[in-house]
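Whiteboard transcription, Tuesday session. T.W. wrote the structure tokens on the left side:
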């Protein structure tokens, strides 16, 4: 490995011992060997730090940093500060990079000079699957321009919808991240939303790599849903922070429609994953009474929102009481037939909704 590695991979770690070996092995299997891995242990109370230390003793490319528990965002920021590579990649400790990720993404940024490369991934549960050819779950090809390298303004109305905001679906030029002062939100449950959206808005050019290169593990327990239930206001803080950052850059007018779609997308994702009725009813009511107006979502017709699930969520929150919403956790999965009937009814009402998008 050269003194300045091509890629710095930053991995925040918190109590991930059951999954860490697979994540670490996926990096050691990369076809591009010129990387460093900065693991930031965020106050784990299990064997995570010991596992990383064991790998680091065998491979000098791996470094372990330790900090008191401060959030994944704080851990990622610490990793950025320690990184020295030409490019930055981020891997969660329970996910898996496919072997060609670093090689292919680096080649794309080398060839194009873009600041950010976006690519695709797939979700999985249980054991790591064999990856079959075909599209993944996260790159929305219908929103992409024809050219594989483009300026953010080329897709201004849908920039933030081309790929989900997870930071592990992108490779960043490190000099760009440093020059733009990009940082993760500390203490946020969805700490990567503001970072990734701000990066897309600030980039001079964005490159697309239409390949599945990362596998996202969907955990059956202990995932973000329980944290949202205990603190549903956290998602509100995230979208307010995103607005603040775009306003500070003077970028909000250019990407206003895409920003509003992203606001509703984040709210929709949390509403659809809350598991306790009290948390759902709180966020539903807050969204109806305040957030739809605060973020300019209330006055637009369905066609303003580019994803079908956003139109469904808007109607469910704007037009239905919380306890009648098919998104309410009391109804989700209660019987095999009711959720499907409710969603069909919701879609019929949407088609009758008057007015279009601006």
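and on the right, the sequence the group agreed on:
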């Amino acid at each position: 490995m050269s003194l300045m590695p091509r890629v710095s991979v930053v991995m925040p770690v918190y109590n991930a011992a059951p999954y860490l070996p697979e994540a670490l092995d996926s990096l050691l299997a990369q076809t591009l060997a010129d990387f460093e891995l900065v693991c930031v242990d965020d106050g784990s109370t299990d064997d995570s730090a010991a596992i990383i230390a064991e790998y680091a003793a065998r491979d000098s490319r791996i470094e372990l940093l330790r900090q008191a528990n401060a959030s994944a965002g704080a851990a990622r920021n610490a990793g950025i500060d320690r990184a020295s590579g030409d490019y930055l990649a981020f891997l969660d400790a329970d996910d898996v990079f496919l072997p060609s990720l670093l090689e292919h993404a680096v080649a794309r940024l080398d060839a194009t000079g873009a600041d950010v490369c976006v690519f695709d991934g797939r979700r999985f549960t249980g054991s790591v699957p064999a990856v079959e050819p075909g599209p993944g779950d996260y790159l929305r090809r219908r929103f992409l321009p024809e050219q594989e390298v483009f300026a953010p303004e080329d897709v201004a109305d849908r920039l933030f919808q081309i790929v989900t905001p997870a930071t592990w679906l992108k490779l960043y030029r490190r000099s760009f991240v440093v020059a733009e002062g990009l940082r993760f939100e500390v203490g946020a449950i969805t700490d990567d939303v503001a970072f990734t959206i701000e990066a897309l808005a600030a980039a001079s050019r964005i490159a697309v790599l239409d390949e599945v290169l990362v596998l996202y593990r969907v955990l059956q327990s202990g995932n973000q849903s329980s944290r949202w239930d205990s603190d549903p206001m956290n998602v509100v803080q995230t979208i307010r922070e995103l607005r603040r950052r775009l306003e500070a850059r003077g970028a909000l007018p250019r990407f206003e429609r895409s920003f509003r779609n992203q606001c509703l997308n984040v709210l929709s994702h949390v509403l659809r994953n809350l598991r306790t009725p009290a948390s759902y009813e709180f966020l539903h009511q807050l969204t109806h009474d305040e957030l739809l107006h605060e973020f300019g979502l209330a006055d637009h017709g369905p066609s303003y929102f580019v994803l079908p699930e956003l139109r469904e969520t808007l109607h469910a929150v704007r037009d239905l009481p919380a306890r009648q919403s098919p998104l309410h956790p009391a109804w989700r999965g209660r019987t095999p037939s009711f959720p499907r009937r409710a969603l069909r009814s919701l879609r019929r009402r949407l088609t009758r909704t008057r007015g279009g998008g601006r």
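Someone added at the bottom: DSSP finds twelve helices and nine strands in the chain.
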